[in-house]
């Protein structure tokens, strides 16, 4: 457990973010390995099937991750305010709400998934393998939710290392099982899905056990499992705010994916590869943003408004420097990476993937501050503006899928998200710095949400 309310903000943010960054890099390494194994042992159609369906599972996982990040905000505020009883009550509520929501969402999507794939215009030649793959992946969402719940709870109290260790073990298990199920046993796409399911289960169970064995202060006592309506309301509003923020963006991505699927299997495979590289490149920016949620929340609880402002400025400068480095890496090594990842020499496929990655990376100068400002606003308890910014991104993706992509093809896809990043970064900057003028008053009001139940 680590207190983020003392020390130099730059050092505190970097040291807290590093384990989160490494964890996400390991996760992306698994995505790379999984894609490479599938493309090498099963073929391009299977590789495209992963891309055609991942937008569905990723949307659900992103929603659950956002939900548990939101649940962690009251926990972090309570920790910053040194209110341990209140903190444990929020942990208890987080556990109950996470499990209930996960089961409900998973069952609903499993029932609807055939219609969803049809609506996404999944190419006929990959429809069946896509359906069998995504059904198995969806069964593992509950384990993803449990892991994210534990990881975000631990990060709320300053521990970003334990989730990293569990994730590293999960990635190693996943890659080994991929090689066994897909490479040796020849189970194809189902083998890759089963490998993911088993690894996720191991990761979730290990993280849950370690959390309560090492940090008994988080384990709710008998009378702390019962929350009143106001406490549940606090968890639900912060959870849904973060969950909907990520979910709304991904709903736009689903609509955009349907337009991509209509462009053919080669484009779907190219986009799958491009998104794998995109996820790796932006992981550092995203993780620093996630770190700012905890940094801001803890300092909110400790009533240090000036430290919040200082931390945000430091984080924005940091992601700007990182973006410059990423641009150089992308332009120098991008083409070679795509040739290796797709196990393909198809020039059209490689060219599409390179084009997408190079256009996207140039707009990371807007994406990095976007992550920082959005997560900082959430940490301050300002929930409406981040959701509205996500709605803007969704609308832009829907408009692109219906007008820009039919007109410009895959080039339209490549420019869709950068356009939304620029617009949202401006909106969030205005919202944050306007909000910060009255920061002390707003922090005291947000603190009352926690303390009035004590």
Helix content: over 70%
Number of separate domains: 1
Could you give a short account of the major beta sheet? none
Shape: globular
Our count of helices gives 15
Task: Calculate the mean pLDDT score and round it.
Answer: 85
Extract low-pLDDT stretches: 446-454
DSSP strand content? under 5%
Radius of gyration, Cα only, in angstroms? 21 Å
Order of helices and strands: HHHHHHHHHHHHHHH
Strands, count: 0
Category from helices, strands and their pairing: mainly alpha
Q: End-to-end span in angstroms?
A: 22 Å
How does this structure look, described?
This protein has helices spanning 9-41, 44-80, 84-119, 124-139, 141-156, 161-184, 188-214, 229-261, 265-301, 305-342, 347-362, 364-379, 384-408, 410-437, 439-451. The chain has 454 residues and is mainly α. It has one domain (9-451). Helix 6 (161-184) runs antiparallel to helix 7 (188-214), helix 9 (265-301) runs antiparallel to helix 10 (305-342) and helix 9 (265-301) runs parallel beside helix 11. Mean pLDDT is 85; it is low at 446-454.
